[in-house]
Amino acid sequence: MPEPPDCGTAPAMDKNAPIAEYMTALPHTVGSEQTITFAQTLMRKYEIRHLPVLHGGELHGIVSDRDLGMIAGLNEVDPDSTTVEEAMTQEAYTVSKDTPLFDVLQEMLEHKYGSAVIVEGVKIIGIFTTHDSLQLLVENFPSA
């Protein structure tokens, strides 16, 4: 069984700290022309639920395991020939590495985003997901 992605050990929670301190650096990505089956295999292999989608080396959208499962489950869809582009959300929520943690959390909560893609210009440098936020909460919750 592959090891889960290394999200690192989250530092003590500081709502004003930059998201770069809590993100998963260098996330896996998928090309927009890859198939749904390819993306699902990648997600299972690395035990992840969100993939930034690239087109021409630039961020084109975001796709989740839920997006892929919903599209792949339609009768007329062949996941071996249908592209990720057909399942992705075109507008990925992006922030800079200096955005405060609390601002990212508030935006994710308000808009029900499953992830935030951290960018530097057009380069993807990290991802912060709802899983990361729950891990942060558990690690900082006072022990009983």
Please provide a written account of the structure:
It is a single chain. With about 140 residues, this protein is α/β, with parallel strands linked by helices. It has helices at about 35-45, 65-70, 100-110, 130-140; strands at about 25, 30, 50-55, 60-65, 95, 115-120, 125-130. Strands 1-7-6-5 form a 4-stranded mixed sheet. A 3-stranded mixed sheet has the order 2-3-4.
Which structural class should the secondary elements be placed in? alpha/beta
Helix content: 25-40%
Number of helices: 4
Could you give a short account of the major beta sheet? 4 strands, mixed
- N→C terminal distance: 32 Å
Number of strands: 7
Question: Can I get a quick summary?
Answer:
The protein has 144 residues and is of the alpha/beta class. It has helices at residues 36-46, 65-72, 101-111, 130-140; strands at residues 24-25, 30-31, 50-55, 58-64, 94-96, 115-120, 123-129.
